Structures are given as C-alpha cells and as structure tokens.
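## tool: complex_structure
## caller: assistant
## args:
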Amino acid sequence: MAADNDTLTALIKRCGEGDERALKTLYSMTSPKLYALLLRILKKPATAQDVLQEVFLKVWNKANDYYPGKGSVMTWMSTFARNRAIDEIRRFNPIEPGSEFVESEIKSEVGGWQPLDEAIKVSEARSIEECLGRLEENQKQSIFLAFFQGKTHIEIGRVLNVPLGTIKTWVRRGLKQLKECLEV
Amino acid sequence: MNITSPEIRDLLAAEYVLGTMTYKTRQRFERLLKEDIFLNRAVEDWQKRLTPLADAVSPIKPPAKVWRNVKKDVRKQREKGLSFWQKLVFWRGLGLAASVAAIFFVVQSLITPAIQATPQFVALFEDQQATPAWYLQVDQKTQRIIVKTLSAPDIEITKVHELWLLPAGGKAPESLGLLPDKGQKKLVIPASRLTQFSTATGLAISVEPAGGSPTGLPTGPVIMQAKIISL
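## result:
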C-alpha cells in the first residue's frame, strides 16, 4: 500500500491527538519500507524488529513535533530508524577482523537499488536519485555502503579494498557533489 | 571537537547523517548537537538531502508481533500517564456536569465583558472541600479561554498557579498559561492546541515558580483537576 505524503501527514497529526487507529494505519503503510531499511543495516531480523518497535513508539510520542519543514513524513521516520540502527551497530558490532566481503555483495548493494515507486513521488526523493546517478562509481559505492549498511570509513575501505584516506576523499567529494546537485 | 568553520560543520553534519562516524565520535557529536543550533540546522538539512534515499528499498512486511508489541507499549504508556494524574486529585465524577451547568448560568452574568458567542467548552475547578476555585470558558472561534476566579487557594507570593491541558493518549501535559488569583483573565490559545480540547482527558492546575514552569512540564504539585465539558 503506497501512501502519499499528504495522507501520511494527516495520520501523523491524528497520532499527535492520541488516535491509535491512525498509528495502526501509519504502521501498515510505512513499516515495510522501514523494516527493509533496518534489515539492511542490522542484518539480524530480531534486532531489526526490536528497533522497528522502538521507532513506532517514538513516532507516536513525537508526532506533535513533526512539521513539513523537516521533510516528508517518510524522511522524518526513516531518520529515527537509521539513527537508532546505526547506534545499535556501533555499540554492539565492533569491526570484525577477517570478515569477508565478496564483490557480489557490493554489486548487489549498488545494483540492487530499486528505482522509486511511481506512487511515491516526493520531489526530494527523485532529486537524490538523479544526483547520486551523477557521482563517480567509487563515490557512489562508498555512499551506498555507508547509507544502506551503516559502515564506517574503515569498514568501507575493507569492502572496497582501498586505504582509509582514499575512502574519506571519495565520501567527502561525493557528499559535496550531492549537495551542489541538490541545490541547483 | 571544536567546530568553528562552517565548512567543517557542514561536513561533520553530513558524515553524521550518512552514518560513517565511529561510536565515540557519534557520542561526542551528539553532545555538541544539544548546544549548537547551527550544527542542528546543518544536520537537519543533510537529513532532508540524504534520507529520501531510504525510500528506494524494497518493502518487507515485518512479523505481526511487532505491531502487537507497539500496541502494548502505547497502552502501557497511556495507563502510566493517566494513573499519574488520577492519583493526584480525587475526581468529582458524575455530579460535576450538573453543578457546572448550574454555575454556568450564574457565572455568565459575572463575566464582563461578555463574549457573545456561546463557548464550546467549560470547566470548573474545585478544591478538596468542593469550593469552586476557577471557572473556565473556552471559545474556539476567538481562540480564548476566559478564566474567572471564584475563590483561588492561598499561595506563596513567589509562586503561581499554572493551567495544563492533559492531551489524549496519556501524553505530556501542555501549558495553557498562568491563572489569576482574583478577577478575570483571558488566555490566548494557539489554534493547534485548541483542537486538542475535544479529545483531551482533562485539565489540571499545578503550583509553579513565578513566571511558570521553567521546563515546559509541571514541576510543582498538582492541586486540582477538572473535566472539560462540551456544550
């Protein structure tokens, strides 16, 4: 069930007023994407489920804090989800020596990136897609690995087999170009 | 970590949102975020830029138990919120509606200048001896609450009485302003808060330091509670 931002905004407003049915509807519309995002970062389903639960409780409690200036509702909720997920992996998953990263993982990470649903056309989302497409492959891969897998610079370096300094440069240049592209 | 240059601020905000910071760096950065408003804005901007990428994942339906647990969490929280307030003041209960209706007509004549429109909500605060203390009329159209003091309880000169709305869902109370100790006062209410009156669980009054609660939540004892009656 795809949902447009106006519908989600109305649901958030009703959550702010204490309407539990609105939370249920919001959950059914948005939890699959959030769960998928959490699974990619956290890998373990049990952990992803726990964090998903926390995210919705937080959304319920902070519903009155949302306003359109913060971006779309999905952006707002995804921010909670990603923040919590990255906290989780930083705290409990130290960098594992000898983990093996296969090239196919990289390809599937970047190549498996879905073009956006026609129904979910928030203008901001289309722009980031465009702008990412313009980055050099190295920059794009680094940013993907950071965003969708929550990897640190060192971890990205291990996956792509390049020194830390190089990763930092790729990431920073990539971010700079994204910002310039989005601000056009 | 001392952030002086806007470029460094921007870069750090971007790396924080992207998620590349190590644990300790994140912690230090989050401490800075609590104090640095420019840093906060930079983070918000990067969240708006990058996070829409998350829309591109293929959805995966979570197991049913996650929603069951969310529901449980929400209910538990609601019970905690309500019971906290209910413990503090004895509910006058069923008798209240009748007495308020009677008082409404008497008090209407005492309120000057009269608000011509019929108020949509009223509330009556009584102390433990059932002595009426304050009477409130809420007019959504004019966005005002008219407060009429009937018999305010004694209070230290350094303290004030603050009025709170108790929103639905056991959520944190929201301040509606300070109550007068005599006479009449009009409180101006933002539209967004007015709409909460129809779903709120009630109103409460706490004793706060001069100027009202410094934290945005009741800090002093809650001395009275009232139901919101819609006319």
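## assistant note: The first helix of chain A runs from residue 5 to 16. The CA atoms of residues 131 and 165 of chain A lie 24 Å apart. Handing back to user.
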